[in-house]
Amino acid sequence: MNEVIKDMERYAEANNVPIIEKDSIKFIRKYIKLNDVKKILELGTAIGYSAVMMASVKDDVEVTTIERDDKRYREAVKNVNACGMDKRIEIVFNDALDVNLAGHKYDLIFIDAAKGQYIKFFEKFENYLNPGGVIITDNLKFHGLVNNKEKIESRNVLGLVNKIEKYIEYLKERDDFVTRFYDIGDGLSVSFRANDEKVKNID
């Protein structure tokens, strides 16, 4: 499996596919291990790299991951099969906002899809969170451009950064959730229900 992971890293670099940074996935893998996470929902599969890395923490971890890009979806299916994890990783080809997961609950929800939709993702998928569960969001620094907007030349990038900043403020203003922000990788947040006594081992 290590060779498949290395192949994924090489493919991502060669084809300019963004995959999670090493420090970020290390943090998430540690969280999964310390908190006995079993059910994970990931928004934004890309080529399956983070799904494989999360599922490989323990044999009882199951991941449902959603990807809307056809090429990346097919690459992810190939990679998951190559790792022998097709029984524990379910890849859904759809837009996350169109997916109905009624009846399912998750210990960890990982948001790593379209940056401009983060608030919509959070509001939709918080309903699928188990007691003691957390929502982890990636890319909150967006390559260091959040809080450094004077460096941005592209209007599209500026729009994305504005939406990420709006999402950060949204998380801070949610009284029913507690969110901790981490300067790890490209910036992570960990959100859990304010009245949830089961949450532990975050730091």
Which secondary structure elements does this structure contain, and how are they paired or packed?
Elements: H1 2-14, H2 22-34, E1 39-43, H3 49-55, E2 62-67, H4 70-82, E3 89-93, E4 106-111, H5 118-125, E5 129-137, H6 155-173, E6 177-182, E7 188-193
Describe this entry's structure for a reader.
The chain has a 7-stranded mixed sheet with strand order 3-2-1-4-5-7-6, with helices on both faces. The protein is of the alpha/beta class and 203 residues long. It contains 6 helices and 7 strands, in the order H-H-E-H-E-H-E-E-H-E-H-E-E.
Q: Can you write the helix and strand succession as a string?
A: HHEHEHEEHEHEE
Shape: globular
Q: Roughly what percent helix?
A: 25-40%
Largest sheet descriptor: 7 strands, mixed
Named CATH architecture: 3-Layer(aba) Sandwich
Fourth-level CATH superfamily: Vaccinia Virus protein VP39
- What's the overall average pLDDT, rounded? 91
Beta percentage is 15-25%
CATH C-level: Alpha Beta
**Helical run tally:** 6
Instruction: Kindly state the number of beta strands.
Output: 7
Strand order of the largest sheet: 3-2-1-4-5-7-6
Rounded to an integer in angstroms, the radius of gyration calculated over CA atoms is 16 Å
CATH fold description:
Rossmann fold
Kindly report how far apart the N and C termini lie.
29 Å
Quick structural overview:
By secondary structure, this protein is an alpha/beta fold. The protein has helices at residues 2-14, 22-34, 49-55, 70-82, 118-125, 155-173; strands at 39-43, 62-67, 89-93, 106-111, 129-137, 177-182, 188-193.
